TrEMBL record, chain A:
The UniProt record lists the keyword Oxidoreductase: yes
Pfam families: POR (PF01558)
Molecular function GO labels: oxidoreductase activity, acting on the aldehyde or oxo group of donors
Stored InterPro entries: IorB_Oxidoreductase, Pyrv/ketoisovalerate_OxRed_cat, Pyrv_flavodox_OxRed_cen
Gene3D superfamilies: Pyruvate-ferredoxin oxidoreductase, PFOR, domain III
Keywords assigned by UniProt, alphabetized: Oxidoreductase, Pyruvate
Stretch forming the signal peptide: none
Name assigned to this protein: Indolepyruvate oxidoreductase subunit IorB
Classification lineage: Bacteria, Bacillati, Bacillota, Clostridia, Eubacteriales
From TrEMBL, chain B:
Cofactor: [4Fe-4S] cluster
Record-listed E.C. numbers: 1.2.7.8
Coiled coil: none
Amino-acid positions noted as binding [4Fe-4S] cluster 1 in the UniProt annotation, renumbered to this chain: 581, 586, 592, 627
One function term, GO molecular function aspect: 4 iron, 4 sulfur cluster binding
Keywords recorded for this protein, A-Z: 4Fe-4S, Electron transport, Iron, Iron-sulfur, Metal-binding, Oxidoreductase, Pyruvate, Transport
Enzymatic reactions: indole-3-pyruvate + 2 oxidized [2Fe-2S]-[ferredoxin] + CoA = (indol-3-yl)acetyl-CoA + 2 reduced [2Fe-2S]-[ferredoxin] + CO2 + H(+)
Organism from which the protein derives: Desulfocucumis palustris
Record's protein name: Indolepyruvate oxidoreductase subunit IorA
CDD domains xref list: TPP_IOR_alpha, TPP_PYR_PFOR_IOR-alpha_like
Amino acid sequence: MKEPLNIIITGVGGQGNVLASQVLSSAAAQAGYRVAVGETFGVSQRGGSVMSHVRISLTRPYGPLIPKGRAHIVAGFEPLETLRVLLEYANPETVVIMNNRPNYPLGCLSGEQKYPDPRDIEKAAGKLTPRLHLLSATELAKEAGSPLAANMVMTGALAGSRLLPFGREHFTGVIETLFQDPVRELNLRAFELGLYQMNK
Amino acid sequence: MSIAGVCLEKPGTKVALTGNEAIARGALEAGVAYAASYPGSPTAEVLGTLSRLAGNFKLYAEWSVNEKVAMEGAAAASFAGLRSLVVMKADGLNVALDFAGALAISGCRGGMVIVLGDDPNAHSSVREEDSRNLCKAIHLPVLEPSSVQEALEMTREAFSLSEDLKLPVVVRCVTRVCHASGDVELGELNRPLPVPDFTRDNRVITFGIQLHALQEQKLARAAEWACHSGFNSYTGPENPERLVIACGPCYMHALEALDMLAATGVGVLKLGVTWPLPHQLLLKYLRNASEVVFAEEVEPFVEDNVTSLAAMQIPRGIKFYGKRSGHVAGPAGPGIGELDPDILASSLAGIFGVKYETPGVSGRAEALELLGEKMPDRELAFCAGCPHRASFWAVRAALELDGRGGIVLGDIGCYTLGMARTGYNLLQTVHCMGAGIGLAGGMANLSRFGFDRPIVTLVGDSTFYHAAIPALINARYHNSSFLCVVLDNETTAMTGHQPHPGRSVTAMGEPARTVRMEELLQGVGLPYVVQDPYDVEATIDVVCNMLGQEGPRVLILRRTCVLAAVRGKQKARVYVDQEKCIGDSCGCGRFCSRVFACPANVWDAAGGKARIDEAVCNGCGVCASLCPQGAIVVERAVL
């Protein structure tokens, strides 16, 4: 494992990124690792960009912010936000897991700005880092029962990426304690779908 | 990061907690008996956590009406010998400052800790106030945690220090600690049986300059304590020539920046006690240093105080690098915004005369070309279905119908976003809690000089209780003519749905005697109307009608915050009937997605018609009432 292992989870307020980073970091802590998480959300429950920095280490504690260009894994819940993070934090080795479902900013809805063609976003991400995994996380979440569970599909994909030093059981353990039925069942289903997609 | 971790009985165990949870845990380990707060980011979750554990720990926890009342309540518990905690964001200290300044002179009895949440970069604030300068002004000791673990330990130890000094102690926590998470080692929980005692013999009085002298003695003792406190620590060569003095999360950033530069031989002095400064400890490391760099947020607080100390105590010159010299600066300039490992690495590289290059991607230019000239911004927006959107729409429409150039003054809450596109850029003033009403009164009083525009001021329900009442009394007393619109979403939404006096439940979940807004207005003698903003047409009528009236008057637009309303419930399904939507040939100018600007109303470019994003929509159905074609269908959930 890289020391520290730097993971960025990014998306739009309301997509449940913070919850995903909580599941990931609790799983890491339960597996015996040191964790530091920095959440950048501000007032972004209200539709702004949200970014969580998760740092997993063995030897010493780290600060909550990942330096530029030093992300090992980026889990992007929204294509445009993924690109934004890649431009600042990625390097050619960075592994990217990206949900392909756009969430349009007001400036794009109003027509003043243009949301890039999803195919161009995909191509651009590929130019930045060759290790790109695309996922229809929102569609998979609908399959699991609710589009809102896309965060757990993405968490499942992270667990299935084989890049983390601990196994899925640590994730499912956290999900089981964090939620109550029926949300627990929904989230576990969504998690499994994400995990399966990555291992397929 | 869970309530279970906060109340875990196993000392020595490591659990992952947020900074705010760690503060709560620290207070529980210290045996806190009374906790009070008004919610504000970044510290809102401290009392949220304690209130959920109140029954279990037999402590008292309240969401107070405002920060001053919270601090007074906590001080009373301290006067009666109990350990008490009061939590607020930096702006809250401004509200509480009158009392805080007096309390700092009278002193306290039981350990009393003031947790201040500063927000460098103003992530969730209107400004990035550095509260340390105020703490210095009123003579309170300040501890600054650099990590989640330290947030726990400092909160716990601050109670003992406070009891020892008979002075409240501040734990100043910035967003990067409050909203961070990390693994922390738990200490022992402490469940004392609180025995409050305040007899006729007890006196806690702020009067005279003798107490000022005593206050200075307390600070001198605190400085002495600080010199030996483990919260200040040093790593590096014994007599460093190059020294970094860092506090808060900047300490972690500085260690990482030095790693990134592979810089060796640099001493790092971490200050956990930033007021009063540990003079002897500082002098020990300054004595041989030739270059000293400061890493702190936001203002050059430690920097100014250390350079002043050096000017008096060290006869030779030291080169100081920081915000004053301009060497430690982020993109917005020295003393503005947060620091991070990158900013410190490039600042230190400049000071030490070495090179640092950020690793990065290679295909940047090609990628940017594919994305077009500019990546779209992601501006803040009211949530899909937010009642404020409907309220702002109605106020805007009514002002246009009224046609007299009415002005709109604002305030602090979710609806502050109404200064931006999501609120149709309606707000013309935004300052602090309750300011919109005082400003509206002042504007109205200009009528005697011929100022005759209609005046509207918008205020939220929690802000109404917190800070609006005196300004409303003043308006009634002086017959200042304006329309106050209360955007009543029946919760403190911005900070995470904390209850307030208009609710029927307390922080601890006990039933409360609701303070009804209507009764308060009746008491002040102000006329009011209550209206549901989701009924947009009726709301426009009411606003139009009230704009034409004279004197101070109030319109309550009441509708529960949509996030609270849909929690755990089946949402209504809203969709666009693709037969009825006639796209751009309608002439509505893509009203739902472009003009009304709800993020759930999207435009399907391929089909040339409107669509609802079901992953975003909260099912309020307001857009359906506004669509000129009646093309939007609302299917209410069958319960």
